[in-house]
Specification:
Elements (H helix, E strand, L loop, with lengths): L2 H5 L14 H29 L5 H33 L8 H19 L22
């Protein structure tokens, strides 16, 4: 009985990166297929040209068109990724100063609400009756 039989066939390791979202992965697979097809088409165009075949000119023209489509496919991956990050939200760093200030203000409001104390005037710039001024004149 060897070590492979005792431990199983393989050892699972945690992934180093998170999995790509489905729309981004779909766009990436599509782009890889289009780029691979374009490379094959370009190679056939080169070989047809070297062989002096009648198929060389149509293959060169279609390779140029495929290059445009492949460029679109790669840009589609980039745009899809950006849109996904914007819609799904990027994981933000929790050490933000602004976030900490908002958290402290929220906590102060909650404790003031529990105690039944009105909000401090320093937090509310406008005031209740509109009589407060921002500058001294």
């Amino acid at each position: 009985m060897g070590t492979a039989e005792r431990n199983g066939l393989w050892v699972e390791e945690p992934a180093s990166r998170r999995r790509m979202p489905d729309p981004v992965r779909t766009a990436a697979v599509r782009a890889v297929l289009i780029v691979a097809l374009t490379l094959v088409q370009a190679m056939i165009a080169v070989l047809c040209t070297l062989a002096d075949s009648w198929l060389a000119f149509p293959m060169v023209l279609s390779s140029v068109g495929s290059t445009v489509v492949a460029t679109w496919g790669v840009l589609d991956v980039w745009v899809t990724r950006q849109v996904w990050n914007q819609r799904a939200g990027v994981v933000s760093v929790p050490a933000s100063t602004a976030r900490q200030l908002r958290r402290e203000r929220r906590q102060a409001r909650r404790t003031a609400k529990r105690r039944g104390v009105a909000r401090p005037d320093s937090v509310n710039i406008r005031g209740r009756g509109g009589t407060r001024q921002l500058t001294h004149s």
